[in-house]
Design a protein that fits this description.
Elements (H helix, E strand, L loop, with lengths): L20 E3 L7 E3 L8 H4 L1 H13 L20 E5 L1 H6 L17 E4 L12 H17 L2 E6 L5 H18 L4 E8 L11 H27 L7 E6 L19 H12 L3 E6 L19 H7 L11 H16 L6 E5 L23 H12 L14 E4 L49 H39 L8 H14 L28 E2 L5 E2 L11 H4 L6
Parallel strand pairs: 3-4, 3-10, 4-5, 5-6, 6-7, 7-8, 8-9, 9-10
Antiparallel strand pairs: 1-2, 11-12
Helix pairs in contact: 2-11
């Protein structure tokens, strides 16, 4: 109806075929009035976007695997989250489990290890589509994400990773971000194969990592994420220190110095995060007088009792809290468990004596550990053996830098059934995902194509209706001669009523009148300027179709 520089109503739009005229304001600021079109109605212009949004959300599948084994209900579900593995991220991002497998309980938080990997196919829109899928999941379900970012030996790769992370953070928005993790398990970087990692770790711990951490936190602040918690994820091994709360070993890992700097600089915004895996603990022995039996160690490793044994998760959590208190002198820092899980079948990364015990990586062991996690009570305030939040690893089986592991609660993207099920259980879903894995983002292809097709058809229908309406208006003009460029007093009155009724505040009564000039494609000239009087009437000067409108013409819907 009028240009944005003069009109306070945000839904008013300027159309390409509009012809500007001027109108006086008592305060002296000009108001450009444009041709009124039925398409100016916000309800009509909003239809394509609304239809497209509903179409997309309707196709964005609320996925949950099927099983005849039910393990719910979950305790402390608001303090538990699910990690999203690389297989899910790159293969079926629209099929993220929205309910905990083998339960009906919704997942409320997810851990993403990084925003994107350079090895994944990407021509620009694919990455955006995946990011959009996570955003839609947050909008639809109200979930939050702990987003990880890498810090390693390749500085250029780290920089690109951070660019993608900032892109995803802006798409998600602050309400969907639980926290940002800068670095994952870099305390064991130096023990990876190859001498280059030793030199790399030394460079990281002697300055680069702390500088990188501060830079990224500053970037988060610039993005408006000043209140988002920040953390670095360490393994449980960092607790096995002598003389300091955390590892402080030159040439290996200076974790204690880093954590001291982080808490001194960022206070309680910094969160302590650790990964605990009893599955890999080398201290668990075989049963007495046995080389392939491990029932005693398995029971201890899988215990979630607050007074658990040795390397069980509750006891490791208690040790971590004691180390945090020793380092900071405070018991009020948040402590998250970034990962825990159990692999079944056998994980190639298992190198302890437990690799000889079939029971250790059996289906029964997976079920027992997962069920124990679900029933773990995290609501007991003040109990040092429980974290403030815990993530289970992971949704689907995924390799670990080329090493085959099976920590997933589903086997793959093309499997509808949960891993924990009866041997003869068959899925009742209509879709068959038992063949070749789906091409990356094929479902998003369908969603995007369908969305655009539906929006295009709707827009075409609206344009056809608009053309017919303009044609009818032109015919009426030739017989009645009472409207200017398809604007009649009735339409003007209707526009005035819409402007008045849709405004969040009373209409601006400083406007003398609403009026429009003749249908001149060359724009307004000095002879076409509107003449306004204090009586609230307007005329079109020397225009050949000059006509005056008074307040009475506008009736009860007048603006003045």
């Amino acid at each position: 109806l009028c240009s944005s520089e003069c009109c306070s109503h945000p839904w008013a739009c300027k159309f390409p075929h509009s012809v500007p005229r001027t109108c006086d304001r008592r305060r002296g600021s000009p108001l450009k009035v444009y041709q009124i079109s039925w398409m100016a109605s916000p309800s009509v212009r909003f239809l394509p976007s609304l239809f497209c949004t509903l179409f997309w959300l309707g196709l964005a599948e609320a996925f949950s695997c099927q099983s005849d084994v039910h393990l719910g209900p979950i305790k402390s579900r608001g303090k538990k989250g699910l990690s999203i593995d690389d297989a899910t991220f790159k293969g079926c991002p629209s099929r993220v489990p929205t309910a905990w497998p083998n339960t009906d309980t919704p997942v409320v938080s997810y851990r993403l290890f990084q925003a994107w990997r350079k090895e994944w196919p990407d021509d620009g829109w694919k990455r955006q589509a995946v990011f959009g899928n996570f955003r839609d999941l947050a909008v639809r379900s109200g979930v939050k994400f702990l987003l990880g970012t890498q810090v390693g030996c390749d500085e250029q790769e780290d920089e690109q990773d951070w660019v993608w992370a900032k892109e995803l953070l802006q798409i998600l928005g602050p309400d969907a971000v639980m926290g940002v993790s800068i670095g994952n398990e870099i305390d064991i970087l130096s023990i990876k194969d190859g001498t280059q990692y030793t030199a790399c770790a030394d460079k990281l711990w002697t300055g680069r990592f702390w500088e990188e951490f501060q830079m990224r936190v500053s970037d988060l602040d610039a993005l408006g994420l000043q209140s988002v918690p920040v953390t670095t994820v360490f393994t449980g091994a960092v607790l096995s220190s002598v003389g300091t709360p955390f590892w402080e070993i030159p040439g290996f890992a200076l974790a204690n110095s880093f954590l001291k700097n982080a808490t001194d600089t960022y206070g309680h915004r910094f969160v302590f995060t650790f990964n605990f895996y009893p599955y890999f603990d080398p201290d668990f022995p075989m049963d007495v007088n046995s080389s392939d039996k491990c029932e005693s160690s398995l029971a201890k490793a899988q215990s979630f009792a607050k007074n658990g044994y040795g390397a069980s998760v509750p006891m490791m959590t208690k040790l971590a809290r004691e180390a945090v208190q020793q380092l900071t002198g405070s018991n009020y820092y948040l402590l998250w468990m970034g990962e825990t899980g159990w692999s079944s079948p056998f994980a190639d990364s298992l190198v302890t004596s437990m690799k000889n015990c079939q029971l250790w990586f059996s289906d029964a062991a997976l079920r027992s550990y997962y069920e124990g996690f679900l029933q773990w009570d995290l609501e007991e305030g003040g109990d040092p053996s429980v974290p403030d939040h815990a993530f289970y690893f992971t949704a689907r089986d995924s390799d670990n830098f080329g090493i085959e592991e099976h920590f997933g609660l589903l086997a793959s993207c093309h499997e509808q059934r949960c891993k924990i099920r009866s041997p003869d259980f068959q899925s009742t879903l209509n879709h068959d995902f038992s063949g070749t894995p789906l091409p990356i983002l094929s479902e998003l292809w369908l969603q995007t194509a369908g969305c655009f097709a539906a929006a295009a058809l709707l827009s075409l229908s609206i344009n056809i209706a608009s053309m017919r309406r303009r044609a009818n208006a032109g015919a009426a003009a030739s017989t009645k001669g009472q409207h200017l460029d398809f604007i009649t007093p009735a339409v003007m009155t209707s526009a005035a009523w819409r402007l008045s009724s849709q405004a969040s505040s009373p209409p601006d009564h400083s406007l003398d009148c609403l009026c429009c000039g003749s249908a001149s494609s060359s724009g307004a000239s000095s002879s076409d300027e509107v003449e306004s009087s204090s009586r609230g009437s307007c005329s079109f000067g020397s225009s050949p179709t000059a006509r005056s409108y008074t307040n009475e013409d506008l009736g009860e819907h007048q603006l003045v």
